[in-house]
Amino acid sequence: MKVVLSTLNAKYIHTSLAIRCLKAYSEKDFDIELAEYTIKDPVMNIVSDLYQRRPDVIGFSCYIWNIEETIKVIDVLRKVLPEVKIILGGPEVSYDTEHWMNRLTNVDFIVVGEGEETFHHLLQEIEGAGKYHFIYGVAYRKGEEVIVMPGRPKQDLNELPSPHRFAEDVADLGKRVVYFETSRGCPFSCQFCLSSIEVGVRYFDIERTKSDILYLIENGAKLIKFVDRTFNIKRDYALEMFRFLIENHNGCTFQFEITADIMRPEVLDYLAEHAPPGVFRFEIGVQSTNDPTNELVKRRQNFTKLSRTVTKIRESGKIDQHLDLIAGLPMEDYNTFRKTFNDVFALGPEELQLGFLKMLRGTGLRIDADKYEYTYMDQAPYEILSSHMLSFDDIVRLKRLEDVLEKYWNAHRMDYTLHYLMKDEFSSPFDFFQEFGNYWEAQGWQKIGHQLEDLFIRLQSFLRDRGTERMDVILGLMKLDYFLNHKYKPRKIWWEPTVDKSRLNQHIQRAVRQPETISAEFAELDLDDKDMHKHMVMEELPFRLDQLLAGVPITGAQGRSLLMVAYQQNEQQKPLFFVAALTSERAAL
Which residues does the UniProt record annotate as the domain Radical SAM core (predicted)? Predict the structure, then answer.
């Protein structure tokens, strides 16, 4: 019997862990192939590929982000492969299972919850006697009737084979995100999250986990994303794993979901001292800093301890942090969410993800939706449209904010400029992003694409139209950010240059003769006249950029300075910038 396990991923770079777990458990008894696509692939391309594999059984792993696209594929498959058995599994169909069986008449079975043993038993009965009423954790059809069997007891994780050692995966390990679990379950009860439904946490054997990770690293994996809901729930376990990964990373990057307010000081101290820069990334779900909201959704969170952890990690300079917020939780209106946003932004995360509440099937909030007057999309991803505290107008406003937050802050295209704006020109980060997002939509820019220079030009237009003060300073910082966005000397700029050819030659000659007056780091580059012309850009600024970057208020950064940016002078191909003061009488360095 030929079995194909498939999923539609968000991107080509992602690997599906779920279908690999199923294959690892059942491949000893069945001929199983993996077939991965993306939600952007044309339906006919997916169907044609599956058709040519001539399967007897096709299984799909279903999530909120791929269920509707998967349904389209199934409906066409049934027309071209009328005899094939179609099985669904995954979190999206593990709840309201009877609803899915009634809606999707082209589906033969649904595997509910943890799937390895259930899927294997189901394949045995499909190939054998068809006694589906003996299979725990499956939904099936008996004539016109839908039968949903009782759930299966939790599996012993140490009896499951590794899903990470397929020979066909090795060639692409370095090009894809590898999803990895060291545990299953979650210790918390957040009412908006599916993980709250499974009580307790189970761990895979730590030595097997280490062995699998070494195998992946040795075979070229570059990014491993741990899907454990709270990686640091056990202090000793987390510390041992962090130590192991530090000792064996070999250039691989690891991403974890952690709960920051329970991170122990000794673990933080160890990471601050030993973690190599850029090897670890932490994703931290804050969601809300509004105490009534957190209490209502059963989310235990000590924001003071969380802040202390995030601050210490940031100050170590070793680990990038991605902090998550959810707009639309109960008891959170537009104004309290503004406070939540500013509270979390003040922690200085490298990335701040603004999501909107999704009423996931099986969660407590979906069950209590009427209580909080939620309206939400009927189909996945079930995103809210309004609540008792948040109108649709508020949702639309926050969507505008999210758009420019992604384009500017999370993309790190204008870090120096944005820091200045939010510190000196706007009441708060929330107000900057909201006002800019409103302007962006009013201009119709959400309907058209953009290149890098467009982002700078549009920000400049917004700031000028609102009458922002010290545009000369802002433009200088934007020039710095624009130059730092390039690996090579840019061929074009979007402003009128302040340094003509004659003045450029003067600056270069002085820099060649007296490089130590700029900085010791600049002198070490040992650039000659030709190098500077080929690999350097210069701009004169009407303020002391060096003092401003050192934290001096703009009122104390009076004077002029020369910005110098050098390209292709290090192995990382990152631009280097230097600032030299200019006298008011002459362009002397």
Answer: 172-406
> Model-level pTM?
0.93
State the sign of the Cα–Cα–Cα–Cα dihedral 462, 464, 466, 469.
positive
Q: What residues does each domain of the chain span?
A: 2-148, 164-390, 391-469, 489-582
User: What dotted CATH number matches 164-390?
Assistant: 3.80.30.20
Say if 2-148 and 164-390 have the same CATH topology.
Answer: no
Pull the structure tokens for residue 530.
């030709």
CA distances for 367 relative to 19, 89, 139, 196, 359, angstroms: 29, 22, 22, 14, 9
Sign of CA dihedral 365, 367, 370, 374: positive
Among 380, 399, 34, smallest CA distance to 194 is for 380
Secondary structure (H, E, C), 484-539: HCCCCCCCCCCCCCCCCHHHHHHHHHHHHHCHHHCCHHHHHHCCCHHHHHHHEEEE
CATH number of 2-148: 3.40.50.280
Question: Taking the mean position of all CA atoms in its chain, how far away is CA 104?
Answer: 31
Which pair of structure tokens corresponds to residue 553? 């208020």
> What six digits make up the tokens of 296?
């209502």
What is d(CA 66, CA 71) in angstroms, rounded to the nearest whole number? 9
| Eight-state DSSP code of residue 382 | -
**Mean pLDDT value of segment 541-564:** 94
Taking CA atoms, 580 is separated from 114, 332, 498, 547, in Å, by 62, 49, 15, 10
What is the tens place of the pLDDT at every residue in 144-163? 999 999 999 999 999 999 99
Encoded tokens for 94: 């593990």
Q: Is residue 547 scored above 60 in pLDDT?
A: yes
pLDDT band at 196 (very low <50, low <70, confident <90, very high): confident
- 214-269: per-residue pLDDT in tens? 999 999 999 999 999 999 999 999 999 999 999 999 999 999 999 999 999 999 99
| Contact yes or no for 86/107 (Cβ under 8 A) | yes
